[in-house]
Amino acid sequence: MSGDFLARIHDLVQKRKGLVIGVLGVVIVASIIGLKFVKYNNNIETMLPQNAEVQNTMRFLRKANFSDKLVISLKLNDQLHSTQDLILAVDQLEAAIKSSSMVTQVISNVSVSNVATEMISFLHYAPQLLGVESASKMKIMLTPESVKEKLRFIYRQSLSPGSSFFMPFLRADPLGLFSGILRNIENLSKSLGYDVVINNGHLISRDGRHAMVIVKTPVALTDGFGARKLVTYLREEFKVVLPEFISADIIAGHMHAVSNEDVMKKDILLTSTIASLAFLLLFLFFFRDLRAVIIFLFPLVAVAISINITYFVFKNLSYSVIGMGTVISGIAIDYGIYIYMAVRKAGSSQETIRQVIKPVVFSALTTISVFAVFFFSSVKGYHQLAFFSNLSIILCLIFSLFILPHFLSKEKKPASTSAALTQVKLLRFKLRDSICIFCWVAILAMMVMLSIGLRFNNDITQFDGVGKEVLSAEEDFHNVWGGKVMPAVLVVSGKTLEGAYQKNTDIYQEAIEKIGKDNFTSFASVWPGLHTRKANLLRWQEFWSTELDSKIKHMLADYGKVYNFSQDAFQPFFQQLHLAGDLEVEPKGFTFFDHLKEQYVIKNEDGYQVLSFFPDQDKYVERLSAISNDYPGVFIVSRKNFSNMVSHALGSELIFLSLLAVFLTAVLTFLLLRNIRLSVIALVPVITSIIVIGGVTRLAGLAINMSSIIAAMIVVGIVSDYGMFVVYYCKNKFQTGTYLAVTFAAATTLIGAGVLLFARHPLLFSVGVTLVTGVLSGYIASLIVIPPLFRLWISDRPGRLKGHTR
Amino acid sequence: MRRVIVIVLFFVCLQVVNVYADNSPQDIKTFLGNLEIKMSGTETISTDFIQEKELALFNQKIVLKGKIFIQKPGLLSWRVISPMRYSMVIKGSTISQWDEDTNQVQQVSLAKNPSFQVAIAQMQNWFCGTFKSMLDDYKITLTREHPIALEFIPLEKSATRNFIKRVMVIFQNDERYIKEVHIEEKDGDSTSLVFVNAQLNQPIDPSVWEVRKDVR
Fold first, then answer.
1. Using one digit for the tens of pLDDT, what is the confidence trace for A30-83?
2. What is the tens place of the pLDDT at every residue in B98-157?
3. Do A491 and A608 fall into the same domain?
4. Nearest alpha carbon to residue A342 among A334, A783, A5
5. CB-closest option in B53, B116, B162 to A162
6. Is residue A47 domain-resident?
7. What residues of B are in contact with residue A150 (Cβ under 8 Å)?
8. Given an 8 Å threshold on Cβ–Cβ distance, is A113 in contact with B156?
9. Following DSSP, what letter does each residue of A33-75 receive, concatenated?
10. Chain A partners of B84 at a C-beta cutoff of 8 Å?
11. Which of B56, B60, B78 comes nearest A564 by C-beta?
């Protein structure tokens, strides 16, 4: 920046001071009012990469039929009331909420009074349902010995006390030919793992003291405001409708959305308050100058303006980005400090500003460049972060360079900061250079050793900052109803229902070969595609010839004589042998089938999706991924796999971004110092921070995650400033209070980052730990390691800086 | 004559209304509660039984004879002597079965067999007299007071409605235990169970809670 240009702006602001203050005041007031109208969102999708696989999964989760459901778990709180009272309360709750516009459907009871009849009736489809493998099994089951054994079994069962419950099935399937079909239906209905007893049609827990109500809602999980309205509405209804002896918990993704927002809001309020107080105290206590408060106000104003502009540009604002506000304030305040310290030390002249402007601008540029690399990321949330941070930093830089000097005294006041300076001087001279460098190398070596085996945690649920009460309700829910271990899902998409069923059937055959039938719960086990059923029917008709039919009839009659079985004993079996049912896309009039279909089939605007479930283990995900890759429109949704997908997609991206950030920092450092050795020395804090972050993270028993990598990149931008300033001072010896300025800059950044350690939200906490460790170690390195290194490597060798132009 | 018929019909209707009034949900709950209290004095029961089954599966009625042992809480032993020896013991949530045909002991966990659990829970309720809890599944009506006769009809949404149409339970005169159970099944089959020589609160030989291959 040329001296003339600086002088012109300086003079202009000086002449129009009143106008500048007025305009600034209007902008500040408008920004503060604007904050009221900014809409924030807590949508995790903003923070995910635009990778095809990740987006596939997110689209599925958004449209899946379980994302529009809430589960209400009602609990009897005393021993005086019975399950009947609980059922009564469920009915009252259903009546109260079912007409709400936020509720599409309430499922509180199911009729199971006709299930047995339906099941037996469903066996009419057996000829369509029994596959190739059944023919060989049937041959074994139809031998005289096997038939005799089966009849003896039926006789024994008929004498048992619970025979009423088995008899209809034994008459419909005396030879056990269709038992596999019934078992598959049972497995499918149990696959979600909830332990529910149907009591008077209601969903009751095994202990009879809890009832489950499922609420379908049009309110999307990602609609933060809608979710809050819905949860508040339901809680109000609980108070009005439910008697005192019954309590209710809501279990839903909506609760996570609301709770995360609450936690994040509380954290932002808490951290902002602590940071503001700490900043104020620091400035007033150390500077003992009321005008220093202006430095403190600049970042706040810059952040407020940036929030409004960022919202205007992006149309929404992520809470995670705003949560970084205190950190940005801590960084942006540095430029004001550098200017203030220079003016305090050397007086408010254009010469003073000129001496300090170069490192200030370059330090701002390095930080801006680090944030700017996030524009190259595929994560939309990172674009917001880059835009918001850089805007705040640029505004703060402008305020610091062109407005701040006009508010400061023009006199030199070197004595006022003597106390703090003395401490810094002590740091400078107490340690001998070589010992100092040796210690630094030893510490870094120790930290490198510690970093070995550092864990990378890619589980995205670690950033779910949901409150304790929600977690506790979920824990109780799983203790009562089970279903804690969620399976992975294989999703088969098709334009038509029949297309989806057939593809699902084809994949089912391959999947059970790869991971075993017991590990793969598929709708195809109960209802294969039409093409498969047609083939099964043809095979069945060939197998069940008139001769075989007659032979079996005779066998049952002959061998049944010994038990006195009646002529019509197995009439239901023979009736359905040749009925086979119509070859239709799906059976009609079966309530149990409709219930199962609701769990396994999703209809959306693109067609249909059929779901299959399997244990969420790497080996199964891997084997099934090999199958799904061969079928277009088939993909796997697994919590573990999703985390891997995200980390894989982000991992390579972050490596590129990190290298770019370090490269830009190094280039800018070189452009400022115009000397390779000086640039290397200036990068000492960067190297130190990165190594210490690794060591301390491991030492604290923590793991590296996506946020901490991003925070580490920000650390690079921050601590490189300290390096630049100290090296610039060592080289030029300008009396602009560099050490003290760096100390205050580090202190403010540490306050901004340190308050995040009070955050409950894991995302902010993780960022806080990395920033505090990195900034602290970078600061110490810049003050303790850079001067001895400079003396040993540069000062002691005359001519080293030859050719250097200031 | 026509007027007489109308009057007679009126009184018949009135009687029906009275019967329903006596069986309001709260009344029957109280009544069953009192009955349970009366039966709660009984800790052990050992009784012979005769069970007659009229099943579409068989040409003729089947008659089973045997013994039932009950010890509260949670122990039930069902032993059939004829026409084929069969034993079943329920201990908590485990069922052990044996029959002379296979001479094999089979153990079943109720927790893993929900359908079997329904059947067993029903049986335990009938025999142990815990009728109040059956209000979740049945509409229970007191059809006669001396000796007590209760009618159980599965509720519309109840799972038992899949199999059972109606159950009648008749008590002994002293109301300390049941005398007969008649079950009408949905598909037309029926079962009657008559308890003979019921002995209450008598010590029971612990061996009846064991199921062994060599049971005699």
1. 988 988 888 777 666 677 777 767 777 777 776 665 667 889 999 999 888 888
2. 988 888 888 877 766 665 666 677 777 777 777 877 887 888 999 988 889 999 998 887
3. yes
4. A334
5. B116
6. no
7. none
8. yes
9. HHHTTPPEE--GGGGS---HHHHHHHHHHHHSTTTTEEEEEEE
10. 155-156, 159
11. B60
CA distances from A366 to A133, A326, A351 (A): 68, 19, 24
| Contact call for A201 and B86, based on CB within 8 A | no
Q: Which two tokens stand for residue A536?
A: 């099964």
For A621-642, b/e burial (b = at least 16 CB within 10 A) is bebbeebbeeeebbbbbbbebb
Tell whether A140 and A201 lie within a shared domain.
no
What architecture (CATH level 2) is domain B25-209?
Clam (2.50)
Element (H, E) at A199: strand A197-199
Q: Could you tell me the residue ranges of all domains in chain B?
A: 25-209
Q: Are residues A377 and A355 in the same domain?
A: yes
**Chain A: residue whose CA lies nearest to B117:** A162
Residue A58 lies in a domain: no
Number of domains in chain A: 3
pLDDT of residue A604: 82
Q: Which residues of B touch A113 (CB under 8 A)?
A: 154, 156-159, 161-162
Which of A116, A166, A200 has the CB atom closest to B155's CB atom? A200
Domain annotation covers residue A53: no
CA-nearest residue of chain B to A112? B159
**Cα separations in angstroms, B88 against A332, A503, A663, B213:** 80, 47, 79, 12
Q: Could you tell me if A620 and A519 are in contact, meaning their C-beta atoms sit under 8 angstroms apart?
A: yes
Alpha-carbon span A303 to A389, nearest angstrom: 8
Helices marked H in chain B: 2-22, 25-39, 114-128
| Residues of chain A below pLDDT 50 | 414-424, 426, 800-806
Query: In terms of CA atoms, which chain B residue is nearest residue A569?
Result: B57
Contact A569 B84 (CB under 8 A): no
Domain encompassing residue A503: 116-188+487-615
B126 interfaces chain A, CB cutoff of 8 Å: no
Mean local confidence (pLDDT), B47-65: 93
A236, exposed or middle or buried, with CB in 10 Å at 0-12, 13-18, 19+? exposed
A:B CB pairs within 8 Å: 117
Place of tokens 């992975």: A488
Same domain, A317 and A446: yes
Q: Which residue of B has its CA nearest to A117?
A: B162
For residue B109, list its beta bridge partners. Answer: B94
A454, A402: one domain: yes
- Rounded to whole angstroms, the Cα distance separating B167 from B185 reads 9
- Residue A721 to residues A331, A384, A401, A685, A781: CA-CA distances in angstroms? 10, 23, 16, 9, 12
- Using an 8 Å CB-CB cutoff, list chain A residues near B116: 162, 165
C-alpha A789/C-alpha A792 separation (Å) is 5
Residue A804 lies in a domain: no
Q: Which residues of A touch B139 (CB under 8 A)?
A: none
Give the global pTM: 0.69
Characterise A516 by phi-psi region: left (phi > 0), alpha (psi -120 to 50), beta (else): left
Give B17's DSSP letter. H
- Check CB contact of B57 with chain A, cutoff 8 Å: yes
Residues of B in contact with A200 (CB under 8 A): 136-137, 155, 157-158
Is A140 in the same domain as A178?
Answer: yes
Residues of A in contact with B161 (CB under 8 A): 113-114
Which residues numbered 142-201 in B keep a CB inside 8 Å of some CB on A? 154-159, 161-164, 183, 185-187, 189, 191
Shared domain for A355 and A454, answered yes or no, is: yes
Residue that terminates a domain, selected from A580, A615, A650 = A615
pLDDT of residue A213: 92
- A292 and A435: one domain? yes
Residue B63 has pLDDT above 90, yes or no: yes
Alpha helices (H) along A399-545: 404-407, 418-430, 433-451, 468-481, 497-515, 530-543
